[in-house]
Each structure stands twice: as C-alpha cells, then as structure tokens.
C-alpha cells in the first residue's frame, strides 16, 4: 500500500510540473514527503559513486533511499506523460475549471504548510512577505523571447528543476518566463510520440536538470536543518504569491506561435469575474465566467489537499 501511495504522489508531482504555475514541490510538501525527498537527492554525491565503483550496490541503494526514490520517479514519469496529454488538453478546453482546481489546491496548501510553523516572529513574517512578493513579481513579469541555443537549454533545465523543489514556483512557469515553454514542452511531447528529432535538446535539458537538482537540494536541506521556521514561512509565501498566476479568470494580453504553428497564451493578467464577462475576443478563455463551476472546482482542490495532507501525516507517523 505504501508503494502505491508513493507512486500516486509521484504522479501528482509529475502532472503538476507540466502546468505553468503549479509546483511539484507543493505536492511533495502537502503529501508529507518533501524533506525525505531533499535528503534522498542530497545523498547523490561522490561518496555514492565510490560505493558503486566498489561494487557496494546495496549500500549505495540504501544511502539514497533507493526504494522511495525509484517509486517516486516512476510515478513522476507516468504523471508527466498524463500531464503532457491530459492536463494540456484541459488547459486548452476547460481553462477556468482546471485553473480553479489548482487555485483551491494551492490555497489549501498555504494553510497546511503554514500551520507547521511552530512560532511566528518578525523574521518569519518578513520571510513570508518576501516569498509572497518574489513570486507575485514573477507572475506579472513579461516573458522573454527565449533562445534555442543548447547552452541556454542547459541553463533553463538547471533553473526549472530548482523551481520544482520550491513550493509555489513552477518549473514550467519558469520556462514560460524564459521564453522556452513552447519550445521544450513540444519537444517532450514529440519524443513521447516517437519523434526523435529533438532528442539532443531533451538530453541537454535533462543534464541541466540533474545539475540544478543536485546543487539546490543541498541548499534547501541546509536551510531546513538550521532555519526551519523561516524556511517554512518563506515557502508559504512563495505559494501565496503564486495564487495570482492560477487565478481562473485571465485576460489574455498577448499570444505566441509555437514550432507546430499553434497559437498559445504568452501573457495574461488576472481580472474579476465581472470584468471577465465584459471582455471580447479573449483568446482561449472566452468571456463565460462559469462562476459556479469555478467555485466547485476550487472547493474540490481545497478538499483534496486536506485529504492528501491528512493521509500524508498518517503515513509519516507509521513510517
């Protein structure tokens, strides 16, 4: 049962990472596996390579919490496949419903993570405000035009994967800001469909991801060990700031064309449902506010997080 639970958590993380504005780190946090994941990644070092070269495979596997990591990565892989096809379809065909669901999910996550802060003081409040301000600024920043050079693809991989470890900062959204979302995601989709023409781009991106993952996990592990309350407050702020990005009623300000000739949202801003209803020619979203559907999806996302948090806490207590 624990194995199935880990796979499902990995799938949820994988699906979240495909969506600009939703973080796999948020899913890891609310399901109770965040710090264990950081420690597992941090264990990948030179000492691990030495154990492997000496033939001590069992010791190496134990060092990185191999069973946990393998099940989680397997689930994430499956989640990415589902996300690339199913979630992207929902984003294109039911944008208000799916964004409302994510809004409820992240709103509840702020409460779940915030309650783990054992005491509030001025330092923690400042950390909360800084985290909120940082991500809010990111959500209103204008995306760049991108760069298809392999060195830039590598950097994007390192930065995007670092965002994966931060609740509230989506790796996909970072790619969007860097102007690379409509370049990288279609390459992944093509590869999954059997088209190998973009495999070099994916390999370079993956190497960048691995580099960023191994580096940033050490920073976060140190922060949790030495400044846990401040770190939790900052991470809660990151999620609060991201609520602007997942607000379901968006006025599309500009669009772009990907390398398949498809028009995509490049930049949008949050508006009230009443303002949304008055819009004309609003690409993708239209102007039907669907307030009832939105509220229902927000409640569903909120409730789902509370359930995941509850069962995640129970699993941690029995581990």
Please state the average pLDDT score.
86
**What summary fits the major beta sheet?**
2 strands, antiparallel
Question: End-to-end span in angstroms?
Answer: 12 Å
Instruction: Work out the strand percent.
Output: 5-15%
Total count of helical runs of at least 4 residues? 15
What's the structural domain tally?
Answer: 1
Order of helices and strands: HHHHHHHHHHHHHEEHH
* Gyration radius over CA: 20 Å
Proportion of helical residues: over 70%
Low-confidence stretches: none
Biggest sheet, spatial arrangement of strands: 1-2
Tally of strands: 2
Shape: globular
Description:
With 319 residues, the chain is mostly helical. The protein has one domain. Helices cover 71% and strands 5% of the residues. The protein has a two-stranded antiparallel ribbon with strand order 1-2. The radius of gyration is 20 Å and the shape is globular. The mean pLDDT is 86.
């Amino acid at each position: 049962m624990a194995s199935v639970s880990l796979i499902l958590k990995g799938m949820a993380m994988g699906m979240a990472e495909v969506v600009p504005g939703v973080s796999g780190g948020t899913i890891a946090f609310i399901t109770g596996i965040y710090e264990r994941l950081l420690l597992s990644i941090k264990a990948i070092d030179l000492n691990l390579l030495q154990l492997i070269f000496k033939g001590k495979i069992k010791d190496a596997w134990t060092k990185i919490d191999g069973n946990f990591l393998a099940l989680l990565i397997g689930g994430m892989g499956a989640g990415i496949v589902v996300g690339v096809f199913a979630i992207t379809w929902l984003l294109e065909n039911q944008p208000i419903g799916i964004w409302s669901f994510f809004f409820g999910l992240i709103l509840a996550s702020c409460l779940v993570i915030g309650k783990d802060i054992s005491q509030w003081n001025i330092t923690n409040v400042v950390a909360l405000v800084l985290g909120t301000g940082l991500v809010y600024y990111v959500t209103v920043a204008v995306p760049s035009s991108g760069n298809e050079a392999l060195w830039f693809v590598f950097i994007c991989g390192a930065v995007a994967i670092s965002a994966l470890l931060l609740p509230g900062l989506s790796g996909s959204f970072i790619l969007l800001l860097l102007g690379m979302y409509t370049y990288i995601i279609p390459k992944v989709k093509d590869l999954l469909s059997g088209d190998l023409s973009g495999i070099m781009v994916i390999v370079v991106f993956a190497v960048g991801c691995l580099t960023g993952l191994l580096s940033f996990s050490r920073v976060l592990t140190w922060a949790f060990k030495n400044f846990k309350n401040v770190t939790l407050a900052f991470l809660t702020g990151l999620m609060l700031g991201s609520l602007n990005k997942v607000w379901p009623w968006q006025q599309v300000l500009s669009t772009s064309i990907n390398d398949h000739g498809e028009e995509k949202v490049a930049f949008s801003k949050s508006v009230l449902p009443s303002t949304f209803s008055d819009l004309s020619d609003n690409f993708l979203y239209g102007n039907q506010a669907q307030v009832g559907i939105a509220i229902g999806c927000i409640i569903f996302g909120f409730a789902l997080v509370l359930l995941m948090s509850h069962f995640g806490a129970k699993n941690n207590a029995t581990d």
